[in-house]
Amino acid sequence: MADARTDSAWGTSLELGDPADGPLHVRLARALRTAVTGGRIASGSALPPSRSLAADLGCSRWVVTEAYAQLVAEGYLEARSGSATRVRAGAVATPEAGGAVAARWEPEFDLLPGVPDLRAFPRRRWAEAVREATGTLEWAELGYPDAAGLARLRQRLAAYLVRGRGASLDARQLVVCAGTLDAVLRLCRALRAEGHTHVAVEDPGWSRLGATVRAAGLVPVPVPVDGDGLRVDLLRRARQVRSVIVAPAHQFPTGVVLAPARRAELVAWAREVDGLVLEDDYDAEFRYDRHPVGALQGMAPEHVVLMGSVSKTLSPALRIGWAVAPPRWSAVLGAEHVGGMPPPVIDQEAFARFLAAGAYDRHLRASRLRYKRRRDRLLAELAASLPGLPVSGAAAGFHLLLSLPDCSAAVVVEEAARRDVRLADLDDHRMVRTSEAVGRTLVLGYGNLADRAVPGAVRRLAEAVAAARRRGRDREHRHGGVHGRDRERDRGGLGDGGGGEPAG
């Protein structure tokens, strides 16, 4: 922190004005004062030693020491023996609160879905991989990166996807991206260039996918999801659609797995329309009741693009993802004109080493065990604190659905927030709200919830559900009184003595 403050002061440009504006030490003091009051030199910043600044300005050291002394006397600077001259803390009023960046809400219990266990990020091993990458990269590799990604990472990722996800590819078909959304954006731009106008998306689904489709100039078309996954029969009715984004291994947010018959039906559709399936391999590595379902891409590599990332396995902060595309599309994806940027080369090399050393496989195995134990504990706590409420979603990933037959999910989310708990309403992920269960389902994420926090989080959730039920009963009581009078009025039970008219 001290170094950062020193750099900001040393690099500040000073406008000394014209010699006619007064002696140099006066003009220097004025320039420094303006820089401090204008915020260009922050509170606590260390100023350059007088000898160094004098050399930079081409003046005597006396000019600098005199200017510093003047500002010390005015209270802008403070000088301590054996230490640098610094801008005095509190010398300049800080901006009003209205101009400050709002602090992000960090609840005590965060059950937001889609976030992995960030506490379990392998910091030491990743730091070692970054250090090794920095020390071994060739000088030529430190230039602008290949838009398709580092060759070594593409080769090792290809080997991992064949071995671990049942994919069918060679490294030339793989493009390294900055996450799944970057892959979707590149693909949609390529689709638009090929004449596509619409892209189907799962509904409910990840809302940012639809937004990304729109950003590429295409129209997202919602297709419902049921207990067997994407309704391919309804997809067939959308005649303008020849491409679809789907998460077959573990759909978000419903948690369903695309049934074998639907997988075959989807592949048949893609072949019939000469279309493209964009397979979002969302948290596919985490399955707890059986071996993870293999990638759909292995069934039809000529019509499926396999997209994945480390956002759910390691951390979304790394921004490392990939897309495996049929040859006619992979060259376009890796071209610079479609936009997008691969992750930093050093991080790509670090991940390549992480894969080669087996560290990624070990991390995945440990994560599966950790998430399974946490899911089991969450289910036990829900059964104890909220008995009778149905829970659904495959034994996979790190989220599940909790149905609320007798209260509103939106109200529960609101009540939970008052108790410092963050929840998600399934309705927030819908494009079309036609389901009978609208407003009655929560999406509970447990990936980034510490094991020891599970009981407390469920207790607060139970309190929020109880509060939502009370609010619902109060509303029904109020509305029920009005509706009861209306019913009596319809029967002539309320009136002025038999005329059938309302009594005042």
Can you put this structure into words, describing what you see?
This protein has 504 residues and is an alpha/beta fold. The chain is 41% helix and 12% strand. It has 15 helices and 16 strands. The protein has helices spanning 2-10, 24-37, 50-57, 61-74, 123-136, 151-165, 180-193, 207-215, 232-237, 260-272, 327-333, 345-356, 359-385, 409-418, 454-490; strands at residues 77-78, 86-87, 109-110, 174-177, 198-203, 219-226, 229-230, 241-246, 276-280, 304-309, 321-324, 391-392, 399-403, 421-422, 424-425, 441-445. Strands 4-11-10-9-8-5-6-7 form an eight-stranded mixed β-sheet, with helices on both faces. A hairpin with a 2-residue loop joins strand 6 and strand 7. Helix 3 crosses helix 4 (61-74), helix 6 (151-165) packs across helix 12 (345-356) and helix 14 (409-418) packs across helix 15. The relative contact order is 0.11. Residues 1-8 and 482-504 have low confidence and may be disordered.
Task: Describe the protein's topology.
Layout: H1 2-10, H2 24-37, H3 50-57, H4 61-74, E1 77-78, E2 86-87, E3 109-110, H5 123-136, H6 151-165, E4 174-177, H7 180-193, E5 198-203, H8 207-215, E6 219-226, E7 229-230, H9 232-237, E8 241-246, H10 260-272, E9 276-280, E10 304-309, E11 321-324, H11 327-333, H12 345-356, H13 359-385, E12 391-392, E13 399-403, H14 409-418, E14 421-422, E15 424-425, E16 441-445, H15 454-490
Parallel strand pairs: 3-14, 5-6, 5-8, 8-9, 9-10
Antiparallel strand pairs: 1-2, 4-11, 6-7, 10-11, 12-13, 13-16, 15-16
